[in-house]
Design brief:
Low-confidence stretches: none
Shape: globular
Number of domains: 2
Largest sheet: 2 strands, antiparallel
Strand order of the largest sheet: 1-4
Order of helices and strands: HHHEHHHHHHHHHEEHHHE
Distance between the termini: 45 Å
Oligomer: single chain
Strand content: under 5%
Length: 399
C-alpha cells in the first residue's frame, strides 16, 4: 500500500509541476509535506507504532480528493473570470494607523503579562499558556469586553504586518511596529500562532521572488529550535526535551494516533456515518471541546508516547467515516485551489493565501480550517475583504 501511495503522489506531483513549478502551490506543499513525514517515519528510530494499510488508504483518499478540485479549477481561464475589484484603504499606509495598532499591542502585552504574573509569578510563559488553555476549555472566566478590546485589535497585527511586507511600505516607526507584532506573537508562547506568522512570511517572500532554498532551510531550522526553547521556558527541562522529542511528540505522533482510531473504529463501511458533523463543526457551533473524544483520559492516546492530536482527517472520519475523508479533502482542495488561482491576478488573494497557508502545513497535526479555527478564519476574511481591501465594483480582469 505504501508503494501505491508513493506512485500516486509522484504522478499527481508531476502533473502539477508541468503547469506550475512554484513550491507554494497547495498540491505541491501537501504532497511534499506528507512524503517528508512518511520518509521520516520510515527512516528514523522513533519508537512509535507502525502504520497500518488503513492509514495509507486514508491518506491516499485525502490527497487524491484534495487534488481533484485543483485540476478542475486549473481548467478555468484566469483572464476571463469575473471577480471583485479591490482597492486598499489609503489610511492603512499612514504611520498614524500603525501607531494606533502599536498602542493596542502594547496594552495587550501589558495586560497579558500582568495577568500571567498574578497567576504564576515563577514562570510567565507557562502561566500564559495555562490561562489560554483553561479559557478555551471553559475552566477560566474570560475578561470583560472592554479588557478584550486591545487583545482583539492586537490579534490582527500580523495581518497588517503581512500587508506592509508585501507592499514594501516604508514609513517612520514601521520597524517598531514590526518588532511589537513579533514580540506579541512570541509572548503568547503558542507554537500554532508562531507557525502561522512564519509560514505567512515565507509565502510573501516567495510571491516577491525573494525566497532562497538556504533561507527556507534556515527558517525551518530556527523554527524548530524556537519551539524547543518555548517548551523549555514553559517548564520542561532541557535534558528532558530535545529535537527528537519534538519530532516524536509534535510531528510524528499524530499519524499513529489517527491510525489507532481507524483500527479501533470497527468500521470498514465506506459510507457509514456516526454523526452529522458534531465534531467537524464544533467550533462553528460554539462547542469549546473541539477534539473528538476518541478515547478516555482526556483524549490522550498512547502510541506509545501520549498525544491528543490526530491529523487533519480525524474529525471528518469520526463524523462521516471514509466518505468524510473524501469530502473533507475535496473541500480543502477547492478552498485553497481557488485562493491560489485568484492570487495569480489579485494581490488581496496573495495576502489571504499567505494568511491561511499554515493550515496546509499543519495538516499532519489537526484541522485548522474548520474544526478548530473556522470562526477565526471567517474574521480574517472579513478583515481582509471588507476592512483592509473593501470591494468596490465588479470588473473583468485583464492581464
Amino acid at each position: 500500500m505504501c508503494f501505491v501511495l508513493a506512485v500516486v503522489f509522484a504522478v499527481i506531483l508531476i502533473l502539477v509541476r508541468k503547469t506550475d513549478k512554484s513550491f507554494i502551490n497547495p498540491i505541491t506543499m501537501t504532497i511534499l509535506l506528507w512524503l517528508s513525514l512518511l520518509t521520516l517515519y520510515a527512516t528514523i528510530d522513533h519508537g512509535l507504532y507502525a502504520l497500518s494499510d488503513r492509514f495509507y488508504m486514508a491518506l491516499l483518499l485525502w490527497v487524491f480528493s484534495f487534488s481533484v478540485p485543483y485540476f478542475l479549477i486549473s481548467l478555468l481561464p484566469v483572464n476571463d473570470c469575473l471577480h471583485l475589484k479591490h482597492e486598499p484603504m489609503r489610511f492603512l499606509y499612514r504611520k498614524e494607523f500603525a501607531i494606533l495598532f502599536s498602542i493596542a499591542i502594547i496594552i495587550s502585552l501589558m495586560l497579558t503579562i500582568k495577568e500571567a504574573y498574578e497567576f504564576d509569578p515563577s514562570n510567565i510563559f507557562r502561566a500564559i499558556r495555562t490561562i489560554s488553555l483553561d479559557r478555551s476549555n471553559g475552566e477560566l472566566e474570560k475578561p470583560g469586553q472592554f479588557a478584550l478590546f486591545p487583545h482583539r485589535i492586537a490579534e490582527f497585527g500580523y495581518v497588517l504586518f503581512f500587508v506592509y511586507l508585501f507592499k514594501n511600505i516604508k514609513f517612520k516607526y514601521l520597524r517598531l511596529f514590526q518588532i511589537l507584532v513579533l514580540f506579541h506573537v512570541l509572548m503568547r508562547a503558542n507554537k500554532f500562532m508562531i507557525t502561522k506568522v512564519v509560514i505567512g512570511i515565507i509565502i510573501i517572500l516567495a510571491y516577491k521572488g525573494k525566497l532562497k532554498c538556504s533561507t527556507l532551510l534556515s527558517v525551518i531550522g530556527g523554527l524548530f529550535l524556537l519551539f524547543i526553547l518555548i517548551q523549555i521556558f514553559r517548564g520542561a527541562s532541557g535534558s528532558e526535551f530535545s529535537l527528537l522529542d519534538f519530532l516524536y511528540i509534535y510531528i510524528l505522533s499524530p499519524l499513529p494516533a489517527f491510525d489507532s482510531y481507524i483500527l479501533n473504529s470497527n468500521s470498514t463501511n465506506l459510507f457509514s456515518t456516526v454523526s452529522f458533523g458534531e465534531h467537524t463543526f464544533a467550533n462553528l457551533l460554539g462547542d469549546s471541546s473541539v477534539n473528538p473524544d476518541y478515547f478516555e483520559n482526556e483524549n490522550l492516546v498512547f502510541v506509545p508516547f501520549p498525544t491528543n492530536v490526530f491529523t487533519v482527517m480525524s474529525s471528518y472520519f469520526i463524523d462521516w467515516r471514509w466518505r468524510g475523508i473524501a469530502l473533507g479533502g475535496f473541500f480543502f482542495g477547492l478552498f485553497f485551489s481557488y485562493i491560489y488561482k485568484r492570487a495569480k491576478v489579485n494581490d488581496i488573494y496573495k495576502l489571504l493565501y499567505a494568511s491561511v497557508a499554515y493550515i496546509i502545513v499543519l495538516q499532519f497535526f489537526f484541522d485548522f480550517l474548520i474544526t478548530q479555527q473556522v470562526r477565526a478564519n471567517i474574521k480574517l476574511m472579513i478583515v481582509l475583504f471588507i476592512l483592509f481591501y473593501p470591494p468596490v465594483i465588479y470588473e473583468k480582469k485583464k492581464v
